[in-house]
Specification:
Blueprint (H helix, E strand, L loop, with lengths): L12 H27 L4 H17 L5 H20 L3 H30 L4
């Protein structure tokens, strides 16, 4: 069984930077999808204001385990979404739940596609 995990430790500073940039892109796109679904037409700039923070936290907490990483990034995402989008607490919670749902589903699709491509005959 292949476990999908990005571990930049072997690659040095360039690998860390690449991982944060890739995570920022992923989090920015999924947050923008969630925000558009809940709020309607919102600027993509807001999602990419929150995304680098989520990328740095998820990378910094990677070795702490999935439960701790998920709990901390949920809290960080909630606060960042509340501040950047200037929403009520209830609407912020809805955006955060939809965001994590979208991120989970997109991440699942990406992992499955990479697993299929990795096991394809050559």
């Amino acid at each position: 069984m292949v476990v999908a995990q990005i571990d930049p430790a072997a690659g040095g500073p360039i690998a860390y930077l690449g991982t944060v940039l890739l995570a920022t892109l992923f989090y920015g796109v999924t947050l923008h999808i969630a925000a558009r679904y809940v709020l309607g037409d919102v600027p993509v700039r807001r999602a990419f204001t929150v995304a680098p923070l989520l990328g740095v936290f998820s990378l910094a907490l990677q070795r702490a385990g999935p439960a701790i990483t998920a709990a901390v990034t949920v809290a960080v995402a909630y606060v960042a979404i509340h501040v950047v989008y200037d929403l009520s607490h209830r609407l912020t919670a809805l955006v955060a739940v939809i965001y994590y749902t979208v991120a989970f589903l997109v991440g699942l699709v990406v992992v499955n596609v990479l697993t299929l491509l990795g096991g394809a005959p050559t």
